[in-house]
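Just scan this pair:

***
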Amino acid sequence: MAQPKIKPLVYIIRLLIIILSIAITGLAFCEIILEENALEYRQKGYQAQKAGMLQEALNFYQKALLIGPPSAAVFNDLGVVYEMLAQIDNAKKAYLQAVAIDSNYGKAYFNLALLYEGEGHLREALEYWLKLASLGGQEESMIRKAQDKVHGLTEIFPDMQDKIPRSGQANLDQGFAALKDEWAMDNNELAQFYIKKAEIFAKKRNYPQALRMYLDAKQLDPQNKQIDELIETTQKMLLL
């Protein structure tokens, strides 16, 4: 008995299915290769950064972002290099892109807070310290630093206290208590140490670093009116 002939259309459909399957498999394979290459570029960027080859590091990180999927970690790496190259606006954009990709990426909030604090924009810095302090699953040392900064800066900007979520206030209070337990040196003595360091930076006209030292001193000795005056004077110098 003669077999029924298969219509040409069936052959075409089968052929298209085979071609489509090959194409999908090929695309998936290409994506894997690109991700591996992006990871390799990021590693090369980190090595170049450690070696002080900042422009090379910048190029590697940019290549990693160009061929790989959007990565908060790589944008944060990029921001660090931009900051080291004194390209502050580009650094801010890179850090903000990192948290836009991953709103829980604490390192970018940490870097943004330090960047704004270094510029003397303390209210903006506090915004990012608050965001970092409210995140979970972050490095303990980083969270402790954020809690410490929130404690000091909300004394300077008491209106910002309202931005601390109720759920986060208990965690912040616990963090402050733990920090105080860890201080081995008398707080007032340590505050004076920071004041002296700040004076050295101020004489060199490194006012951002001087301000950081005064703020650290303020956290240790909040009743010291002299520190308030020094902070105010340093802030004015940053605005000149």
